[in-house]
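Worked example 4.2. Below are the chains of a multi-component assembly; read each line carefully before continuing.
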Amino acid sequence: MWKEKEYMVLPKLEIKDVTKSFPSVKALIDVNFDLRPGEIHSLVGENGAGKSTLINVITGQIKPDKGEILLDGEKVTIDAPDDAIAHGIALVPQELNLIPELSAAENIFLGVKKIKKSFPYSIDWKNIYSEAEKILGTLGVNMDVKAIVGNMSVANQQLVQIARAIALGAEILIFDEPTACLTLNESKLLLNLIKQFRDEGKAIIFVSHHMDEVMEISNRASIMRDGELIETIKKGEFSLQRLIKGMVGKEVEQNQVLRRETDGGSILKVEGLTREGEFHNISFEVKKGEIFGIAGLIGAGRTELVSSIFGDRKLESGTIYFDGKLVKISTPKQAIDMGIGYLPEERRNYGILPSLNIRENLTIVRLKSLYRFPRIDTRMESELVDNYVKKIRIKLASKEDSITKLSGGNQQKVILSRWLAVGSKLLILDEPTRGIDVLAKEEIHQLMRECADNGLTVIVVSSEMEELINICNRILIMHEGESKGIVNASEISPERILDIALS
Amino acid sequence: MDKNQNTLKTWLFRKVSKSTSFFIILFIILYGVMLTIVSSKFLTAYNIGIIVRQMSFFGIAALGQTLVLIIAGIDLSVGSTACLGGIFFATLIVKMGVNPVLSIILVMIMGAIIGYINGTIITRMKLSPFIVTLAVSEICYGFVLVITKGSTISGITGGILFLGQGMLGVVPVPILIFILIALILAYILKNTPFGRELYAIGGNVVAARLVGIKTNRNTRIVYLLSGALACFGGVLMACRYNSGQPTIGKSWVMSSITAAVIGGTSMSGGVGSMFGAVVGAFLMTVLSNSIVVLNVSQYWEQVMTGSVVLIAVAIDAFRSLSRNKVKISK
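Applying the procedure described above to all two chains together yields the following structure tokens:
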């Protein structure tokens, strides 16, 4: 009997029949959700399923059309983020909202007035620093609280964000894709920390695209699809098939290994590439039609390396051979003219051109070939775009819409098409599937495979070892700017890659 | 959903929510109707002639300013550049007896050089356009004072005055020149790779560089155009008044930015149009003209223009807010 009673424990947070419509879409439809103290409750679903909207409702960023929110069994209204904080609800957002110019301690106590109790009532810096240290200490973090946040690694910035939530006295913690920008090791530490919060009795909502994480740490998981909460599954009933089926609405093949052998000649050969402080003496050779992976933890210098090959950074020393010829690449333009394409990390900041529409984003690189004095041939342009929309299966309402209206996966497809349209010989993809939902991710993997089969060469940088193992022929392992060797993807495991990186 | 019902309303809503210019045109029409009812002086060929002539001079500088704003820059030197252009033009013709057409070419080359200097300092040293163009503006105006010692250089005569004073039928020549330049620039913006690259740069300069756009070169070209256009505006102004005056054009900085912003150009870059700048310049001139027509004290003009800018910017903000809301829902 007593077990039954424990099960009936009063929910910390309860969402009842919440509905929210936007002009073009029903974002939430009669959603019921509850969260108990000492529980990790995961929210899973594809992009656009309604997870973000639900979180926005809970944190007061969006007002629902209908429905109520109960805290500890009492009805509350959360009209603004302030209200949420006052009720002890804190969000650790996917895109951290820290102030990069300020120190860790200042960020942690942002919005909290810490003032000396006596004249001159100035800011009590001593107290701020010691309190910040104390909070970070409870998180098991050793960090200089005076360090400027902008210079920190993503993982440390995230810890500062979490510390802020704790400083505000949050009882309900919401993590929105917290591991999207973390390496394997950092993710493990973070998940442990989240478990620690759970054991302290905090109630936690956890959003992630990584099903293995969800299954590892959740007590329950709720699946959302098209604005509806499809079902809530208890621990013990989890299975990858069940979660994905719920999210997608049909069975999907997962983690197919996509690989084939190549015997093409060399397309890119680099020797002794160096930029002090970023990467040192890196040499490798990529064959035509190969998918070549670059693995490593964040801070390994991978992005710096590939963007230097692309000409966006200046190499201090080293040589590059492209298609058998010694080349010097000092601007992206030169790289592009040679036939190199680059899909940058952080799609939103560097990938999309937000002021252009979908059509313009797709054709921007080969615009000059569409130019027939005195004007761009819009018919040719439209045909080109339609062609790729069909071929790459880009889901869109109209190609004249702003690119910012597309989901992450579809934005990524547009950017990929950009390089395919210009006939690139070598594509450098930096974290191409970060923050993209399961289905779109599989599609992008397929697409990369198709490209390679058609003779294109792909270099892919990823923090997800499994992704690299599934799609690559060979993988270069980097750690702190050094090359740790090149391995065959068919004979390696994620753990082994980490071992090699850290050896 | 119901196609027959509310079509006009939804059409209007879509137009207004898509383009600030459309809203401004509606406003000008309503305001014009009101002025016509209140005063018999407004809707006369003579008065309209005055309005369109007046808008052309600073309007040409506003076209250049719009280009600069589109790439997320700002050119605070258009006023002094225009002023210096007018003075230089008057000096060449009156004091040195240079051929007028050659003078125009020389003056525009000078404007282009000033703009190129702006652009080069901004791109090479990665300095803020605000500071660079402000400093260059001071230097240019300093030269104006050095050359003129504060007095007017008058005595421009001959056929060249046609550019500022002439009429083709009932249409003043400056407005024709202004519209022609606007059309050419609008065509370039819409239909050439260069134009599209400017929007890309304004939206995100890093992303633009990564797709192979020569962002620095394009930035220099834009400032160069802005300088040359400002000087050309100064030349027309000198032709209008037969003289180069050290005060003319100085106020064009604010009014060129205002015209652009009223016309829907975003101060944060990536958004803007020549049509908008023309409409914005037109509205500002109608407003200032209405003060004369209505016999209101001249001093009210700035209050009105300021309010209109606020309203235009508010509409803009409202639109981007509603855009963002849709984004969240997706």
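Take a moment to check your reading of the output against the notes. Residues 321 and 327 of chain A are 6 Å apart (CA to CA). Residues 1-6 of chain A have pLDDT under 50 and may be disordered.
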